């Protein structure tokens, strides 16, 4: 009984953390700037590759993961200044540019690094509950997803940057007329979004095979979580990830992985039919 | 020698796309003055205000603030120099609390000076009572007080105020007029405001400018700021 209950929780935690970690960066960039970042998977891939490369160069895993996160954040900030900034208020053009960027990054990695890269063994070993075996590292990922949510909440609700960022999000022109440097807020937000994507890759690096197209394995879940969550990462991402994780965990347990994936997508269609602005849109409407 | 004007605008032009809206606005406002910009609907008063703060690009002419040419500066640079802008319709941040709205305004003037939040609460006690309330749930009059407080908190030297009485009940308009006069008297703040409401113009303005078809066509001297003088220009 205890083992079964913990098994359900473990599977829920596994799906929840995957959805939160893969979607947080995308949600920040979309919510703040209205940019649909088609290169999100490639920022995750960047985090994975930098983590693996620095780990193999001799850094301890946590430091290597910090490098993966920072490199993705820095690349994000530079790309925002060079490519995204000229396309403010042109969502279709920015979508096209980030899609092009994703193709260049994937093919560039394939050409420069090759079709595979040496992986990292999953650290932490395992533990047993009620006769079932579980991975310690998956629990670390769950804790990391909660920390990411706490970080995003504190950043946007308890810091001066957060106040300015939310002002830009609600009325960019008025925020500027009050002295907020919109371009600085956007560059930082894009950097934070890319950094969180890099963190996602860095955290999942020890659990996956490293190939240049690996970003694609995150992108569907990231996008459905953002669509269901709506434009606010604060109000939307956590409830969306929790709801989708419950659906997927249940279906996975009873009918297997494929039905779980199909069920997840059907749940997304039904939720956006009822809540077209996602959870955050619904919550914002209730509040007002 | 007369003191340098706080705001000097010469031949200001601007357009929405290919349609010219401002065709030559000239203004000069000295320190501590309260000046009205009046005219009928659609003559370009609000457009002038948007140009002065930098939310709309000037296609010609110059804007000098305290002797410095700010014509090509962005809105945030102008705000950080000390220009506060209160738009028509208030534009408070609706999903942020009163306190958070006020925090955004602390950047006006460069964010170097001490926050004047306590002063704002003295002028508008309702904002202190409701400091944790989400701004979008407040009435029009309360939002107008918040919009003025949000600018005042940064200590601006010049306030650009667009239609302060619009959608606000008369008793609150009177309070706002009293506070604006106090701000000028206590802090020597210069105020340029756009208004259609005759009572508000008369209770606040010391002199004014009249706009027609995108340009300033007349000055209202102190002796002209009367029922008859202003009405003549508004109803022309």
Could you describe the 3D structure shown?
The complex is a heterodimer of chains A (about 290) and B (about 240). Chain A has about 290 residues and is an all-alpha fold. Chain A contains 12 helices and 2 strands, in the order H-H-H-H-E-E-H-H-H-H-H-H-H-H. Chain A has a domain of about 200 residues. Helices cover about 80% and strands about 5% of the residues of chain A. Chain A has a two-stranded antiparallel sheet with strand order 1-2. The longest helix of chain A has about 30 residues. The radius of gyration of chain A is 19 Å and the shape is globular. The model of chain A has no long low-confidence stretch (mean pLDDT about 95). Chain B starts with 6 loop residues before the first strand and ends with a helix. In chain B, a hairpin with a 2-residue loop joins strand 1 and strand 2. The longest helix of chain B is centred in the C-terminal third of the chain and has 18 residues. By secondary structure, chain B is α/β, with parallel strands linked by helices. Chains A and B meet through helix 6 and helix 7 of A and helix 2 and helix 3 of B.
Give me the secondary-structure topology.
The complex is a heterodimer of chains A (288) and B (236).
Chain A lengths: L1 H32 L6 H17 L4 H24 L6 H23 L12 E4 L2 E4 H23 L1 H11 L1 H6 L4 H23 L11 H14 L3 H23 L1 H18 L3 H10 L1
Helix pairs in contact in A: 1-5, 1-8, 1-9, 1-10, 2-3, 2-8, 2-9, 3-8, 5-6, 6-8, 9-10, 9-11, 9-12, 10-11, 10-12
Chain B lengths: L6 E10 L2 E11 L4 E5 L6 H9 L6 E6 L2 E2 L5 H7 L1 E4 L11 H8 L11 H7 L1 H5 L10 H13 L5 E5 L7 H18 L2 E5 L3 H7 L2 E6 L2 E6 L6 H9 L1
Parallel strand pairs in B: 3-8, 3-9, 6-7, 7-8
Antiparallel strand pairs in B: 1-2, 1-4, 4-5, 9-10
């Amino acid at each position: 009984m205890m083992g079964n209950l913990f098994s359900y929780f473990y599977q829920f935690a596994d799906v929840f953390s995957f959805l939160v970690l893969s979607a947080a960066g995308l949600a920040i960039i979309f919510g703040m700037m209205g940019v649909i970042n088609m290169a999100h998977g490639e920022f995750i891939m960047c985090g994975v590759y930098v983590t693996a490369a620095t780990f193999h160069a001799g850094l301890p895993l946590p430091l290597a993961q910090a490098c993966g996160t920072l490199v993705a954040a820095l690349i994000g900030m530079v790309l925002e200044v060079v490519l995204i900034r000229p396309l403010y208020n042109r969502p279709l053009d920015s979508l096209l540019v980030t899609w092009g960027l994703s193709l260049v990054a994937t093919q560039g990695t394939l050409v420069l690094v090759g079709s595979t890269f040496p992986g990292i063994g999953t650290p932490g070993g395992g533990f047993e509950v009620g006769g079932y075996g579980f991975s310690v590292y998956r629990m670390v990922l769950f804790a990391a997803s909660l920390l990411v949510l706490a970080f995003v909440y504190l950043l946007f609700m308890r810091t001066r940057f957060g106040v300015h960022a939310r002002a830009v999000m609600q009325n960019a022109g008025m925020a500027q007329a009050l002295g907020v440097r919109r371009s600085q807020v956007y560059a930082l937000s894009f950097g934070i979004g890319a950094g969180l994507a890099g963190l996602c890759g860095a955290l999942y690096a020890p659990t996956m095979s490293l190939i240049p197209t690996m970003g694609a394995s995150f992108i569907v879940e990231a996008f459905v979580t953002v669509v269901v969550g709506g434009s606010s990462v604060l109000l939307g991402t956590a409830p969306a990830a929790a709801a989708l994780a419950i659906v997927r965990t249940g279906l996975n347990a009873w009918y297997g992985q494929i039905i779980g994936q199909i069920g997840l997508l059907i749940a997304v269609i039904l939720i956006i039919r009822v809540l077209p602005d996602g959870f955050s849109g619904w919550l914002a409407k209730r509040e007002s | 020698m007369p003191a340098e004007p706080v705001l000097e605008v010469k031949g200001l032009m601007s357009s929405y796309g290919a349609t010219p809206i401002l065709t030559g606005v000239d203004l000069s406002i000295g320190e501590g003055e309260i000046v009205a910009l009046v005219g009928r609907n659609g003559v370009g008063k609000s457009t002038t205000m948007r140009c002065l703060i930098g939310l709309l690009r000037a296609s010609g002419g110059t804007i000098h603030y305290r002797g410095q040419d700010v014509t090509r500066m962005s809105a945030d640079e102008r705000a950080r120099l000390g220009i506060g802008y209160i738009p028509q319709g208030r534009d408070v941040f609706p999903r942020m609390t009163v306190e958070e709205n006020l925090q955004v305004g602390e950047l006006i003037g460069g964010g170097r000076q001490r926050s004047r939040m306590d002063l704002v609460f003295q002028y508008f006690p309702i904002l202190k009572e409701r400091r944790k309330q989400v701004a979008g749930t407040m009435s029009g009059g309360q939002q107008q007080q918040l919009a003025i407080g949000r600018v005042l908190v940064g200590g601006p030297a010049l306030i650009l105020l667009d239609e302060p009485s619009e959608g606000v009940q008369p008793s609150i308009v009177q309070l706002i007029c009293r506070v604006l006069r106090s701000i000028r008297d206590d802090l020597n703040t210069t105020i340029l405001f756009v208004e259609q409401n005759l009572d508000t113009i008369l209770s606040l303005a010391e002199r004014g400018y009249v706009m027609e078809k995108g340009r300033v066509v007349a000055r209202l001297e102190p002796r002209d700021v009367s029922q008859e003088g202003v009405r003549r220009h508004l109803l022309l």
